[in-house]
């Protein structure tokens, strides 16, 4: 039974299409490497290492994968592409599964006892943070949840306007204040309104600045303290949004934000426009933070709950 039996046909097609650029580059190089090979030897492993690193898997994670493949193939002779793909699928899926400790109670569902369920969304400007919030709002609402947005990125007028546009598209209410307002005050008002209106899910946008890590840490800590006063335990989730097309830069952003606040989950966007999809593997492994969502297109439904087995098989299947 293949991994894709767990995905609907539409989701499978979206995943395959979204990862096409990464797959074409990666699989093409693997096929060329196997021409004339009779066994997995040191030279082959060196070339495989180069392919993985060039796909933005990252050096540290690549070495783990190479070590696992080397152990499995130590006594083997010729391995064809299907056998190698099978090894890579199993070992990379296993690596991702080790870091997958999300509370996956169902696609766009919320845990019992957390009402409203509060998600604080962080990430630098331009990674698709506000777009991701809009897509999450739409899909939570489609799942029958009552959703509210909070525009706590008060440093850019464009951020507030963009979130308003997504609130309109998703047909959910938004709480905002004027440009330059205290972000924590916006979060307070949003949660107060959400409680009064019996909302199920609250999505809080935050400013995407990294120039001063201490300033970022202080601001996010203040927002979290204020939210906890209104809804004890909030935020229940801190979702870091990263642009997959930036490769190693996304890894550096993950490092900075995980140092500034306690990130619980990742959303990796723009995978459809890049050959650097391997960054999903490297980020998950390096920071031990589970990837919860992946962005595979511009459509409002093109944000998928991440399935590590389906993701890996989509990359390696012929």
Description:
The structure is a single chain. Helices cover 51% and strands 12% of the residues. An 8-stranded mixed β-sheet has the order 3-2-4-1-5-6-7-8, with helices on both faces. Helix 3 (42-54) packs antiparallel against helix 4 and helix 6 runs parallel beside helix 7. Helix 7 links the parallel strand 2 (147-151) and strand 3. The protein is an alpha/beta fold and 318 residues long.
Brief write-up:
With 318 residues, the chain is an alpha/beta fold. It is elongated.
Looking at how many chains there are and whether they match, the oligomeric state comes to single chain
- Rg: 21 Å
Residue share in β-strands: 5-15%
Strand order of the largest sheet: 3-2-4-1-5-6-7-8
How many strand elements?
8
| Main sheet makeup | 8 strands, mixed
Helix/strand layout:
Blueprint: H1 9-18, H2 20-34, H3 42-54, H4 59-73, H5 81-98, E1 117-122, H6 129-142, E2 147-151, H7 157-170, E3 174-175, H8 183-196, E4 201-205, H9 213-230, E5 237-243, H10 248-260, E6 265-269, H11 279-287, E7 291-295, E8 303-305, H12 308-316
Parallel strand pairs: 1-4, 1-5, 2-3, 2-4, 5-6, 6-7
Antiparallel strand pairs: 7-8
């Amino acid at each position: 039974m293949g991994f894709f039996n767990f995905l609907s046909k539409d989701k499978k097609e979206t995943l395959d299409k979204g990862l096409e650029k990464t797959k074409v580059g990666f699989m093409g190089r693997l096929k060329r490497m196997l021409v004339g090979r009779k066994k997995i030897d040191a030279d082959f492993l060196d070339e495989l290492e180069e392919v993985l690193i060039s796909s933005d898997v990252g050096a540290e994670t690549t070495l783990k994968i190479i070590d696992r493949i080397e152990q499995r193939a130590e006594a083997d002779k010729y391995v064809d592409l299907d056998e190698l793909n099978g090894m890579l699928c199993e070992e990379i899926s296993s690596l991702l599964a080790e870091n997958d400790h999300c509370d996956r109670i169902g696609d766009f569902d919320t845990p019992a006892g957390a009402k409203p369920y509060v998600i604080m969304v962080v990430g630098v400007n331009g990674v698709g943070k506000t777009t991701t919030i809009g897509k999450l709002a739409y899909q939570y609402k489609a799942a029958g949840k009552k959703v509210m947005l909070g525009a706590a990125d008060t440093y850019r007028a464009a951020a507030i306007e963009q979130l308003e546009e997504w609130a309109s598209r998703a047909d959910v209410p938004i709480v905002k204040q004027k440009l330059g307002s205290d972000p924590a005050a916006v979060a307070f008002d949003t949660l107060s309104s959400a409680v009064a209106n019996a909302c199920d899910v609250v999505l809080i946008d935050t400013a995407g600045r990294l120039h001063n890590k201490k300033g970022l840490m202080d601001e996010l800590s203040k927002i979290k303290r204020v939210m906890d006063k209104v809804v004890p335990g909030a935020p229940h989730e801190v979702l870091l949004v990263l642009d997959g097309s930036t490769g190693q830069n996304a890894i550096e952003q993950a490092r900075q934000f995980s140092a500034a606040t306690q990130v619980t989950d990742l959303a990796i966007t723009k995978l459809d426009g890049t050959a650097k999809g391997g960054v999903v593997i490297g980020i998950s492994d390096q920071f031990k933070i589970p990837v919860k969502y992946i962005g595979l297109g511009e459509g409002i439904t093109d944000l998928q709950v991440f399935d590590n087995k389906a993701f890996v098989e989509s990359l390696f299947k012929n």
